[in-house]
Write a structure and sequence with these properties.
With 79 residues, the protein is mostly helical. The protein is 51% helix and 8% strand. Strand 1, helix 4 and strand 2 form a beta-alpha-beta unit.
């Protein structure tokens, strides 16, 4: 399955060191997940895929530029 991601989708490394998220996101996104969210936000991601449902719901509130979905929903939609 991973080989499909590497071959069919544009995956890039994002350096978040020295970057900060808008203050409103810090109030909504849990601290333990902020780096993950910031990587997607800073990297102009098309999607954020997670099975952490509380994080997923909060990321949906803050992500006007990318879709948030579970791994299962991603596989169902794109496979």
């Amino acid at each position: 399955m991973r080989h499909l991601l590497w071959s069919d989708y544009s995956i890039e490394f994002v350096i978040t060191e020295g970057k900060s998220s808008p203050p409103t996101y810090k109030k909504i996104i849990p601290r333990k997940d902020l780096c993950i969210f910031l990587t997607a936000y800073t990297g102009n991601a098309d999607m954020l895929i997670t099975n952490d449902i509380p994080f997923l719901e909060k990321a949906k509130q803050c992500s006007p530029n990318f879709r948030c979905m579970t791994a299962e929903a991603f596989v169902e939609e794109f496979l």
